[in-house]
Design a protein that fits this description.
It is a single chain. This protein has 125 residues and is mainly α. The protein is 65% helix and 0% strand.
Amino acid sequence: MDLFEVTFERARRLGVANHPDAPTEHHITFGNLVAISVTGLNTGISEDPPSMREYYGISLLINSHYIMGEIGFSEAVRFFDEIAYGRLTSEMIACSKDLPCANDSEADIVIATLQEIIEFCLVEF
């Protein structure tokens, strides 16, 4: 395994240990975000597009004082824990609007869809 895969798997396992009831997709998001920030490699663990949470996490990282590839593992874990495992926010949904998303949990997809419906109704009616 390469550095990205090792870092991904370490973060994913930590996420599973700390959030055992979270959906698998959140563990994958967490692993990807930590591995991307620690290694500086933006390969992701699959060829699928990022999830809504991943788009948001990378956006926050880019706009922060951190530099990809220069973040320690523990710092990345703290930075991304709430993004991967917290409540899906309207900012997360907006960040990925009009972008291809994959690996979102069923609950995140439902929430994003409901938000789109509400926004449509507010504009149209």
